[in-house]
Amino acid sequence: MRVAVGRATGFLVGLMLLALVAGNAAGLLPAGGIAQAGQEADLLCDEDGVSVSYGLTGDLSSISSVTVSGIDSDCSGTVMLVRVQFDSEPLNFLVVPLSPGSRSFTISPARPVQALQGVTITIIGQDQEPPNKND
Fold first, then answer.
1. Global pTM value
2. Cα 110 to Cα 63: distance, rounded to the nearest angstrom
3. Can you give the three-state secondary structure of 29-88, one letter per residue?
4. Which of 30, 48, 122, 123 is deepest in the core (most CB within 10 A)?
């Protein structure tokens, strides 16, 4: 009887830890919203924005990939800069030319979930300059 209770307790503790990690991962959302610069009335190629999802390692403790999805067909041919900010350093991914749909980026080595500070996605039109890398 004592062995069964110990196993059940261990199982419940494991489930609680899994729920905590999954809850933390579910809270990993990209920062910001839609930003526009310039004076033209219609600079946005994707008015409803994009979505970001994360690939986690088997134990759910680290982020191994980032996927940007919902890229509108109006953004075809533009440039996308994805900046994933971790405690230690940012990771930058550049897509030229951008195509509609989704793009995934591998993070190697995987970084701890707790180290993620945010994600910034910038889509630059064909006649716009990319942001300064020191900004």
1. 0.64
2. 5
3. CCCCCCCCCCCCCCCCCCCCCCEEEEEECCCCCEEEEEEEEEECHHHCCCEEEEEEEECC
4. 123
Tens of pLDDT, residues 53-109: 999 999 999 999 999 999 999 888 889 999 999 997 899 999 988 899 999 999 999
Sign for the CA dihedral angle at 125, 126, 128, 129 comes to: positive
What is the extent of the structural domain holding 82?
2-124
For residue 104, give the H/E element and its range: strand 101-112
Is 129 a member of any domain?
Answer: no
Q: How far is CA 81 from CA 10, 26, 68, 116, in A?
A: 44, 23, 11, 17
* 131 in a structural domain: no
Report how far residue 120's alpha carbon sits from residue 116's, in angstroms, rounded to the nearest whole number.
12
Q: Is 128 helix (H, G, I), strand (E, B) or coil?
A: coil
pLDDT in tens, 14-45: 444 444 444 444 444 444 444 444 444 445 78
